[in-house]
Design a protein that fits this description.
The complex is a heterodimer of chains A (289) and B (169). Chain A is built from 9 helices and 8 strands. Chain A has a 4-stranded mixed beta sheet. In chain A, strands 4-7-5-6 form a 4-stranded mixed beta sheet. In chain A, helix 1 runs parallel beside helix 4, helix 2 packs antiparallel against helix 3 and helix 7 crosses helix 9. The N and C termini of chain A lie close together (8 Å). In chain A, 49% of the residues are buried. In chain B, helix 2 links the parallel strand 2 and strand 3. Chain B has a 5-stranded mixed β-barrel with strand order 2-3-4-5-7. The chains are: A alpha/beta (289), B alpha/beta (169). Chains A and B meet through helix 3 and helix 7 of A and helix 6 and strand 7 of B.
Chain lengths: 289, 169
């Protein structure tokens, strides 16, 4: 059986809409745990309202947040997958499917008109069509099996303001990197507003690798499966008492996702921290066979 | 947890009874604007031209959000053009600034001076969209989703974060 180009386009559309309108099961469980553990009445109210919002958005297939974010597509192709078209057609189908998804959702119309410096300054305004928003570069990976998976991750603007990628002199102490990530998170978390946050951390040899590891951490992260380091970071941030929406309480971070990449023989590592918001990670995968 | 109901226009007495930490729900006509448009509204106030757009800020609420086909949700109120316009907007009659994020101690004082408050709401767009009865552009249509919008809403929820010189942050 061949995997059709039409189905790939449909899968990209479906993944985008699902990512933008639903909480994953592990995220729902993380919220329920946070509600149970939260002793602050106002903090619990925010957590309950956030969960209630996800129930409405899933039922009505509407955006969880009006900042619907920038689509980040991933294609995983099975070693034995047979596809009816060329690689160009696959990539084009994913891009078209993302446009379909943005129109169906609908996404916030935020593609900026113009080129170069004029685009930066938004001199010509925005496109009204939400489908004009181009995705981030598509990531292609090879996996075992005969299937093809399309994953879409939607990245909102608020967390991009509360993110940082920079070098760290590690002093040959692994915890110096982790504690630096905690320090950066504590500097920014009160300003995020949309807490509980989900810190996503990538460590690599270059700025590109560190950012890519951060994205991988979000893509694969699971609130039910937290490593010792991830729990350590979550607990340190929760000690801040910032709480949901900055109102105080125990639930400042819902969980943490860390991905450690390659290291170079050197005194520095590049660390990327993104304080993802209370509706993130917005991600969904559709598998075709 | 008791929820205090407020309906616009909001009176001085309504504000006097509220304390930091109170949970409220707002119903009635509210305005929506954020960084792109609020400085332009301040210009209209200075030029005494609000009436041309049928805008009445007395006892009003301004929600810091865009209004798009994707819905509504709070943006960070500590953005320069948003927090920076709170003094003039409060003086012109705005009683409730609705958004998210911590504000400066100077803003706490400004709000106290005008008996206005800051209320925060979570990014619950699907919920807020469901609670929005009517929406229309009030001014600066050219700004699109960042225009100044007039909404009719039914029980928009929030928590009082700054009131009477006190802050939750």
């Amino acid at each position: 059986m061949f995997i059709s180009i039409v189905d790939i386009r449909g899968a990209a559309c479906e993944a985008l809409v699902k990512a933008s309108s639903t909480f994953s099961e592990d995220k729902v469980r993380a919220y329920l745990r946070a509600i149970t553990n939260e002793t602050d009445e106002k903090a619990r109210w925010v957590l309950e309202k956030t969960l209630e919002n996800s129930i409405i958005s899933e039922k009505d297939t509407t955006p969880l947040c009006d900042d619907t974010g920038i689509p980040h597509p991933f294609i995983e192709i099975g070693k034995d997958a047979a596809i009816e078209g060329s690689m160009y057609q696959v990539l084009e189908a994913v891009q078209l499917g993302i446009g379909d998804g943005l129109r169906n959702l609908p996404g916030r119309p935020m593609a900026v008109k113009g080129e170069g410096l004029e685009r930066l300054a938004q001199k010509h305004g925005l496109y009204e069509d939400p489908g004009m928003l181009l995705p981030a570069p598509t990531n292609v990976r090879i996996i075992d099996g005969d299937g093809l998976k399309i994953t879409v991750l939607m990245q909102g603007g608020g967390p991009e303001i509360r993110s940082k990628t920079y070098h760290v002199f590690h002093k040959h102490e692994e915890m110096s990197l982790i504690d630096t990530a905690v320090e950066w998170a504590l500097e920014m978390v009160a300003k995020l507003g949309c807490t509980p946050c989900v810190p996503a951390i990538g460590i690599g040899r270059t700025h590109y690798e560190a950012s890519a590891m951060m994205i991988e951490a979000l893509r694969h992260g699971n609130f039910d499966v937290q490593s010792e380091i991830e729990s350590y970071i979550t607990n340190r941030i929760n000690e801040s008492g910032v709480g949901p929406l900055g109102l105080g309480g125990r639930s400042t971070a819902l969980g943490t996702f860390v991905k450690i990449g390659e290291a170079r023989g050197s005194g520095i590592r590049v660390l990327c921290l993104r304080l993802s918001c209370s509706v993130e990670p917005r991600k969904a995968t559709v598998t075709l066979k | 947890m008791a929820v205090i109901q407020l309906t616009t226009p909001i009176s001085e007495e309504d504000i006097n009874q509220l304390q930091v930490g109170d949970t409220i729900e707002i119903s009635g006509i509210i305005y929506v604007g954020r960084d792109a448009v609020l400085p332009q509204i301040v210009e209209l106030i200075k030029e005494d031209r609000l009436v041309e757009h049928n805008i009445d800020l007395k006892g009003g609420v301004i929600f810091h959000s865009a209004v798009s086909i994707a819905g509504l949700g709070p943006t960070s109120s500590n953005k320069l053009e948003i927090e920076g316009t709170m003094p003039e907007l409060s003086e012109a009659g705005i009683k409730v600034h609705l958004g998210k994020g911590a504000l400066s101690s100077q803003t706490v004082e400004v709000l106290k001076k005008h008996n206005s408050i800051f209320v925060v709401t979570p990014p619950i767009s699907a919920y807020l969209t469901k609670k929005t009865i009517k929406r229309e552009v009030a001014a600066f249509e050219n700004e699109g989703m960042e225009a100044f919008w007039r909404l009719e809403v039914d029980r928009y929820p929030g928590v009082v974060a700054i009131a009477h010189g006190k802050t939750i942050f």
